[in-house]
Amino acid sequence: MVETKYIFVTGGVTSSLGKGIIAASLAKLLQARGYRTTIQKLDPYINVDPGTLNPYEHGECYVTDDGAETDLDLGHYERFLNVRTSQANNVTTGRIYQSVIQKERRGEFLGKTVQVVPHITNEIKERIQILGKSGDYDIVITEIGGTVGDIESLPYIESVRQLLWELGDNNAIVIHLTLVPYLAAAGELKTKPTQHSVKTLMESGIKADILVCRTEHDISDEKREKLALFCNVKKEAVIQSIDASTIYDVPQLMQKEGLDTVTLKKLNLSDEVEPDLSRWNQFLERHKNPKNEITIGLVGKYVELQDSYKSILESFTHAGAENEVKVNVRSIHSEYLSTKTIDKKLMGLDGILVAPGFGERGIEGKILAVQYARENDVPFLGICLGMQMAVIEFARNVLGLEGANSTEMNEDAKYPVISLMEEQKSITDMGGTMRLGAWDCELQPNTLVHEIYGASEISERHRHRYEFNNEFKTEFEEAGLVASGINKKTGLVEIVEIPSHPWFVGVQYHPEYKSTVANPHPLFVGFVKAVLNQKKKQTNASLA
Question: Judging by DSSP bridges, how do beta strands 292-300 and 351-354 pair with one another?
Fold first, then answer.
């Protein structure tokens, strides 16, 4: 049992350098050496959580088992570590200020003037140390959102400065991620941006212990020595992070650079046990050497930004490797699907996934995509809103319920086959008020999902308000759309499937949130396998 150590990851020069991937990769290496490791993200924006943010603004909103709506980086943390995160793993400025203001209203500061220092910084320090004080982890890695020098990040940087002093030598270190750009006109890498970034960090009272330098070209020994000299770090602490073909290569690249070794040395921890990456390497081997190839259409409303469906895309990577299949994902904007364009847009797809989302825009296109998949025997997976669109499509085109809809889209729908939960009807606040987090689901025997999961009871994560309307359940089942997963506590339908179809499943929850490298989600694995089998079947039929 070791005293909890802390690693702070800051960023400089520019955003989007990949702090989350570097943090997750280092955590993976430390975990592979036997250290109990977790990661948390501190986000400087004033939203209380990402739940009310448009996906175009911030990418997908990731949801944890305990119902926290968090930054998408927590998805990377879970996918790399195969360790569940929680409310404590994501903190925003909005949540910090909300907590401090609530304490002030309760009189907890005894009439003192509430200030950024010490009250806001104390709150930040307290949040940083929650995971460490739990006794569950040897090492806590804290990623500071934003870029050094941003006004929004200053309270976090000051909190880190104080913690470094309070925790003492060898108990906390700072890893600074910067950019070393290549100037084609000069034909060389430039270290000056990194020097200025480190200087800005030092002006805040923090000295970087390790530099991780993002680059498109190898950094020479000469450049490393220059960076070490002018950024006041040891040469072995200048780590190159060169562009990789996949994010899953980064742990190996960081191991070769010695990031985990130098980190353990600075934290005065043993590095005698070599990292066991055998399972990880098996995954990479299968991922990079597929035996087959399929194309799946991802029909959504936010396809212009890949991060909007980050967890779905990564789930296909995991499931593809498990099946030794290369999964090509073709993004299809549902707003531009119509009866005139549907055949052209969806032609050549081996499978169709209709993605989650909110609001009326692009809904009819999603319904058309479901109809195409159902009528043409194309393997189909609908997630959350995608499942609801499958229900509406079936109601309209099989049951003949003209005008069937969700009350989210039409409050006065003649046939509200999807409707608002009773307990949601009086809610006016948008943030954190949906059915969130892990909910149990009972799988009906002799169904496709029961076979896929190999279990009778499962737990999956949710993020929605509207539900399948049980008043229509009998009518649907008699026509061939089976409710194969039910929440026993509420009686709500969680899963629908069509047994007469090659593979047609709609789920109210978000399976993509639980898929990891070590444990690819069975629903995605089953979907990819079914798509491949159907493709082979059709190919054989055409050759006969």
Answer: parallel
